[in-house]
Amino acid sequence: MSHEITPSRVAEERTPKLWTGDYYNEGISHEGVFDKLKEECGVFGVFGHPDAASLSYYGLHALQHRGEESAGICTTDGGDFNYHRGMGLVKEVFDKDRLGSLIGSNSIGHVRYSTSGESKLANAQPLVFKYRDGDLAIATNGNIVNANQIRKELEAKGSIFQTSSDTEVLAHLIARSSKDFVAATKEALQQLVGGFAFLIMTNNKLIAASDPNGLRPLTMGRLGDAYLFASETCAFEVVGAELVRDIQPGEMLIFDENGVVEDRYSEMQRRSLCAMEYIYFSRPDTDLNGANLHAARKRMGKKMAQESFVDADIVTGVPDSSISAAIGYAEETGIPYELGLIKNKYTGRTFIQPSQELREQGVKMKLSAVRKVVEGKRVVMIDDSIVRGTTSRRIVNLLREAGATQVHVRITSPPFKNPCFYGIDTPNRQELIASCKTIEEIRQEINADSLAFLTKDGLIEAIDSYSTQELNGGLCLACFDNDYPTEVQFHGTEKFGCGCE
Questions:
Q1: What tens digit of pLDDT does each residue of 400-423 get?
Q2: What does this protein do (predicted)?
Q3: Rounded distance, CA 145 to CA 55, Å?
Q4: Which pTM value belongs to this model?
Q5: Matching CATH number, 277-495, of 3.40.50.2020, 1.10.10.10, 3.40.50.450, 3.40.50.1000
Q6: 130 beta partners
Q7: Which of 126, 130, 246, 346 has the fewest CB atoms in 10 Å of its CB?
C-alpha cells in the first residue's frame, strides 16, 4: 500500500504572490527574460538511514538549481511506500509535518524542470507505481531518446500510461517482464537509448544506474553505514556525507538487506559526460570525475584569456555560473576583476508584469549593472554560453546604460549550434543564433565591441577530467560539434528531442 500525504492549504492561502499562476514556475515560458539553458532535473537517494526523508530534503535543496518546477520524495521502511510530490521549490513543497510523515530508512527524491513531458503534477517525480511484486518508484535525471518509440510499442500491447513523462517507459518495461525485479530492470535498461541516471526503489531494494555513455552525472556517498546518491557532490557536503565514487557508465548497483551488488547492464560505450555540466549547470562546489567545477571554470577563463585577450579596464562575470571563469580571465591578464553585475536572488521567473514596458525592463529585476564600477570603463564581460542571443544583448546594453565605454564579450564555451537530446532544454536549431550567424554577425546582434568563444580544444584542455586518449576528453560536445554519442532522431534536416519542440 502507498500513502499520498495530503497537502496543507496554508500555502494556497498565502498572499500576496510574486508570481503568476498557482505555484512558482507554473506555465513558465522556456524563453523568459533570460534565454539560459535549463537542466532537466536532479536526483538524491538514501539507503539505510533512519532520517532518509530529512536527508533527501536537504540534498534536494542543494540540487534546487537543477530543477525549480516540482519536487518529490518517496520513502519506505521495507513495507509501505510513503511519498509526497508538489509543484514549486523544495521549501514550498515540504514542511516539517510532511517530512515527519515520510517514514523509512530508504528514499529517493527528485527536483524537476520539464524538458520532456508537460509541466503538471502527474509528471512530478519520483513516479510511483503498483506492480505484481509490490511498489515501485523511479526518479531520473536525463532523457530517453527512444521513449516515444518504446511507448508506442507498449501501448500497442495494451499498456496504459498515466503520465507524459518518458520515465514511465522504464516502469512499464520492468512490470511487463516475467523475470525477477533485478533481471527485469537490467533487461529494461538495455532497451533504452539516451542520457540518464536512474534511482529505482522497491519495498526492499534500491538500484542506481547510469547510461552506457555516462552522459548524466551520478555519484555515491557514505554517511555512517548509509549509502547516498546524488546528481552532484555538493549535496553530500550539505548533509555531512563523504564522496565514495562516481557511478560508472553502464553500471547498475543493487542495494538490499544483504548489502550491495556491483553489476553492469551494459559495457561502457564511448564516455561522453555532458560538457555543459562543467560549463554551466553544476554548482561550483561540485566535483565531477575528480575535477572541481570552480577550478575547471577558472581554467576556462585563463584559457579564454590566452586565446582571445583584449585590453580593458575591468573584467566582470555574469552571475552566477560565470564568476569563476571571470576570476580566471582576470588572473591571467592582470586586468582587475570587479562585481560589475549583481544578480537579484529573490525574484521568481514569472512576475506579474502589467505592461509591455515593464516586461521589457524585466531583465533589471534580475540583474543590475553597478554604475560606479563600470562607468567610464572598458569592460570584459565573461559569460558561459550564448543561446538565442537575447540575454547577451540585454546584458551588454545594461552595461552600456550604466556608462561602460566598451563592452567586450568572451564566452567560455564554443558556439552553441545544435540541440540537446539528453536532458537539457534547448530551442530548435533555427533559434540557436550560432547555427545561422557568423561570430561577427552575433557580435553585431548583441551590440558588443568584440566577441570571442573558447575553442573546443581549449575547453577540453581546461576541463582536464579524463585521459587525453579518450575522444573529446571523455565529454559530450554534440551541442558544439554535432557529434552525438548515441543515435538520435531526424525530422527532415532538423534534429529534435528533449521536449524542445
A1: 999 999 999 999 999 999 999 898
A2: Catalyzes the formation of phosphoribosylamine from phosphoribosylpyrophosphate (PRPP) and glutamine.
A3: 32
A4: 0.87
A5: 3.40.50.2020
A6: 135
A7: 346
Q: What is the mean pLDDT of the chain?
A: 87
Q: Residue 56, annotated ligand binder? A: no
Residue with cell 532522431: 489
The sign of the dihedral angle between the CA atoms of 118, 124, 130, 131 is positive
Instruction: Name the active-site residue from 41, 74, 498, 500.
Output: 41
- The verdict on whether residue 234 carries a ligand-binding annotation is no
Res 445: pLDDT: 97
Q: Where are the domains of the chain?
A: 39-269, 277-495
pLDDT of residue 22: 38
Tell me how many helices (H) and strands (E) the chain has: 18, 28
Q: What is the 3-state secondary structure (H, E, C) of 25-52?
A: CCCCCCCCCCCCCEECEEEEEEECCCCH
Q: What kind of fold does domain 39-269 have according to CATH? A: Glutamine Phosphoribosylpyrophosphate, subunit 1, domain 1 (3.60.20)
Is the separation of the CB atoms in 142 and 127 below 8 Å? Answer: no
Confidence at residue 119, expressed as pLDDT on a 0 to 100 scale: 62
Residue 488, CB half-sphere, CA atoms under 13 Å: how many?
23
Burial of 180 from C-beta contacts in 10 A (0-12 / 13-18 / 19+): exposed
CA geometry: angle 291, 196, 33, nearest 5 deg: 80
**What does the alpha-carbon distance between residue 198 and residue 249 come to, in Å, rounded to a whole number?**
12
Q: How far apart are CA 406 and CA 200, in angstroms?
A: 53
Which range, 116-125, 244-253, 349-358, 386-395, has the best average confidence (pLDDT)? 244-253
Closest CA to 409 of 436, 377, 443: 443
Q: Which pLDDT belongs to residue 294?
A: 97
End-to-end CA distance of the chain: 38
According to the annotation, is 483 in a ligand binding site? Answer: no
**Residue 368 marked as a ligand binder:** no
- In this predicted structure, what is the pLDDT of residue 468? 61
41 is a catalytic site residue: yes
pLDDT band at 361 (very low <50, low <70, confident <90, very high): low
Residue 308, marked binder = no
In this chain, the answer to whether the domains covering 39-269 and 277-495 adopt an identical fold is no
| Side chain identity at residue 245, one-letter code | R
Is the per-residue pLDDT at 215 higher than 90?
yes
Name the least confident of 91-105, 147-161, 183-197, 217-231. 147-161
Question: Cβ atoms within 10 A of the Cβ of 458, count?
Answer: 21
User: Which helix (DSSP H) or strand (DSSP E) does residue 478 occupy?
Assistant: helix 478-481
pLDDT of residue 80: 92
Q: Tell me the sheet residues that pair with 70.
A: 87, 112
On whether 420 is known to bind a ligand per the annotation, the reply is: yes
pLDDT value of position 427? 72
